UniProtKB/TrEMBL annotation:
<dbReference type="Pfam" id="PF05195">
    <property type="entry name" value="AMP_N"/>
</dbReference>
<keyword id="KW-0378">Hydrolase</keyword>
<keyword id="KW-0464">Manganese</keyword>
<comment type="similarity">
    <text>Belongs to the peptidase M24B family.</text>
</comment>
<protein>
    <recommendedName>
        <fullName>Aminopeptidase P N-terminal domain-containing protein</fullName>
    </recommendedName>
</protein>
<dbReference type="InterPro" id="IPR000994">
    <property type="entry name" value="Pept_M24"/>
</dbReference>
<dbReference type="InterPro" id="IPR036005">
    <property type="entry name" value="Creatinase/aminopeptidase-like"/>
</dbReference>
<feature type="domain" description="Aminopeptidase P N-terminal">
    <location>
        <begin position="75"/>
        <end position="219"/>
    </location>
</feature>
<dbReference type="InterPro" id="IPR052433">
    <property type="entry name" value="X-Pro_dipept-like"/>
</dbReference>
<dbReference type="InterPro" id="IPR007865">
    <property type="entry name" value="Aminopep_P_N"/>
</dbReference>
<dbReference type="InterPro" id="IPR029149">
    <property type="entry name" value="Creatin/AminoP/Spt16_N"/>
</dbReference>
<keyword id="KW-0479">Metal-binding</keyword>
<dbReference type="Pfam" id="PF00557">
    <property type="entry name" value="Peptidase_M24"/>
</dbReference>
Amino acid sequence: MNTLHKLTINLAAKARKRVLRQGLSRVWLRCRSTVENPPGVKTMPQFTVPTGILGQATCHTHPHLIQPGYLTCGITQMEYRERRETLVNKLVSEMENTHQSHIIVIPAARKQYMSDKIPYVFRQNSDFYYLTGCLEPSAILVIVKPAQTDNFKSIMFVHDKDSHAELWEGPRTGCASAAHLFAVDEARPVESFGNFISKITKSSRPSMVWYHNESPANPDIDSAVRTALRDGQASLQDPQRALHFMRVRKSPAEIELMKETCYIGSQSINMAMACTKPGVTEHQVNAVLEYTCRQGGAEHLAFPPVVAGGPRATHIHYIANNQTLAADEMLLVDSGSQRWLYNSDISRTWPVSGKFSKHHRILYELVLAVQKRLIELLGEHRPALDQLFDSMCRLLGTHLQQEGIIPKHVDGNELIGKAYRLCPHHVSHYLGLDVHDSPLVRRNSPVTAGMIVTVEPGIYIRPDDETVPAEFRGVGIRVEDDVLITEGDPLVLTEACVKEADDIEAIVGKHSM
């Protein structure tokens, strides 16, 4: 375990150096520039981060996590403000009535409890975080844009300072510092939200309230919004689709954060490979994944990982992770890390013994060849993800037929259907603040630069599948990378994660638990 500890500390040090080194210098220089703007260019307000102990880490209290002048790691107050402005412009442009006022309500998540007084680890609502950088629970962002004006006002509702509550739950930012910290126009106590939303809807007629009321992030404010809609005779629209179309294309700062979380997730899987041996349990491999991610700088894993040996890998979302690994099994791992709410999502499959059997290697290299070709197609044609899925089915079918796993006489739609039966999940999804990011952006539109997507073909052959030769049964294989779409060739952000068969054999089992 000492060897593992030393290796993961080295990984963490490398990760932190890369945060400081890659890309952030451009942002830093932009923030520090003293050159005057050219004529006609609007001067943007400059922001500072308040000192003191607040409700979340800042560059003053946690300089090892956040660079000077940034609200959250790598992202400035200005960027969050610009996102709010972009959202307002997008929503207003969707409406033809210029005489309407617009009231946008985006709540933070509330705390969730696993049992009495025992909370789950808090996870902020991604839409709220994207617009504010605020990590405190139960806060509310309200943006008010009066009719026939380009101006808007941002108001944050937060829990005010309370010495008794803070004794138990930790420091709060409070109203006095929240406006300064989050670069909004005004901050108010969260308890005043109901009265505020009621008054503003009545005084802003006709008004459009933008609020996601299906499975709201904080149901505690739902009744107040509904009452305001009724009493103020306001219309209701959902802002989430516009937000998802914003979030699906990453800013340069977000791309740097994604590079970091992908690197951390990649190294954690490499370490899991190195610690895999016959007799090790899936649970122990799971522990290596989590330990290495946290040592590398992640808050925690992005999701409960799949650590599935042998035929258990044919259950695509197997997360029991409680079996002992046998020497003749393949091990499928689907894992990722979360760093500053940005997620990686990586799958690898390797032999527990450290050596591929003949038939396992055939299947593995088949899946790997399909995956590599799909990544090439992303660069060559910028297809929609649904088209990429069609390409996967065709490629898988052809390769499986060449290996004699699917009969030679099968062709056309029947061949695609048989391939789909062996890989019944989609080949790609968007990735970012959520693992399945921006779900309201449908997968039938061509990908564009700035998007990050997964590419994850697989094969799952049940032990009782008599349509497949016996030597190939009882195994699940998936190879998944996270890919940045650029103006040129796609960039594989998880390239640090070993995936060539020979390289896998060189690393598996080389370190003890």
